[in-house]
Write a structure and sequence with these properties.
Largest sheet: 4 strands, parallel
Order of helices and strands: EHEHEHEHEEEHE
Shape: globular
Length: 147
């Protein structure tokens, strides 16, 4: 059993109200139980929503309260991102899940590379907020690009 970013399973929960359906993930359903989660929705953000990015740092820094997550309008949505990460971790612990497949580059679910906070499409090294919390708690994290 694994957690997976809900958008990768075809649920329309991305910032623009669309999905990021991934056929490799869909095929994985035939041999594994995949539990869909959208940390941003679990944190209370609506769908669709204004694009959001971690501001020049990483998910670890957000969890440490060193920096913030803001949407493109400048609204601080750090609280919702941390809440969504904690809710995702709670699900993982309740189900004894040890692996998460996240959406690459996402400010919540990205692993290794995320958008840099300038809303310019540029990438920076780092993990999303949920990914950072899951890794901190011993849960293996990969993205759809790793399959």
């Amino acid at each position: 059993m694994k957690l997976v970013s809900a958008c990768l399973l075809g649920l329309k929960c991305t910032w623009d109200g669309k999905s990021k359906r991934n056929e490799k993930i869909i095929k994985l359903l035939k041999k594994e139980v995949l539990i869909p989660v959208c940390p941003e929705q679990l944190g209370g953000l609506p769908t669709p929503r204004i694009p959001q990015e971690i501001q020049g740092c990483s998910g670890e820094d957000v969890l440490a309260r060193i920096c913030k997550v803001k949407n493109k309008s400048g609204q601080d949505i750090t609280k919702q991102f941390i809440k969504g990460a904690k809710e995702t971790l709670k699900i993982a612990k309740q189900l004894n899940i040890k692996e998460f497949i996240g959406k690459s580059k996402s400010p919540s679910c990205g692993s290794g590379l995320i958008y840099d906070g300038t809303f310019s499409g540029k990438l920076a090294r780092g993990d999303g907020v949920t990914t950072a919390l899951l890794k901190r708690n011993g849960i293996k994290v990969i993205t759809e690009k790793d399959l």
